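Moderator note: this is an archived Q&A kept for reference. The question asked for a predicted structure of one protein chain; the sequence and the answer are reproduced below.
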Amino acid sequence: MRAHKRLLAVSGEKIIDNLEIALLCVALLWAIYLLNLVLPFDLRIYGIRPRSISGLPGLLFAPFLHYNIRHLFSNSLALAPLLFFSLVYSRRLTLEAVIFIALIGGAGIWLFGQSNTIHIGASGIIFGLIGYLLAIGFFRRELLAIMVSLMVAFYYGWALFSLFVVLPGVSWAGHFFGFAAGAFAARLTKHDGV
């Protein structure tokens, strides 16, 4: 019954607010990209550099940095709806999940990523949110969580195939460890209030 009441509580105003938050997050990525174009140094060096102590700050910075406009555009198209779906379910749990994904998924990249590379981009967060949103329906077993999981499976299920393909210039480690961290975040928060 509680999940049914939560589903009805998702009002038009809250939906607009969540959409604005998701779009503001994506706008921040664009602002950082544009800032990087005018700075006298390249921010992209602050990505995750596996097994390098100087690459540890990349756990925080890497999701905000993008290689080129195509990279940023594709991540923007994927990130905005995922953030929106997650925020509709729970703003607090979304914030917790994104922080967990960035830190734990980033730590996976730092520990196991290819040496002498710099990992940047929001795709770790994107795959983390896919993992998180797919898993919340399984772990929480609430109507709204199951609906969100089914929507994400329908719209983003195809993306899971990229977890089995290694492409040059694409951080497979970012996708894999982001997804794993997201699913783990869903497991850790299964008893938390929404």
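Archived answer notes: The radius of gyration is 17 Å.
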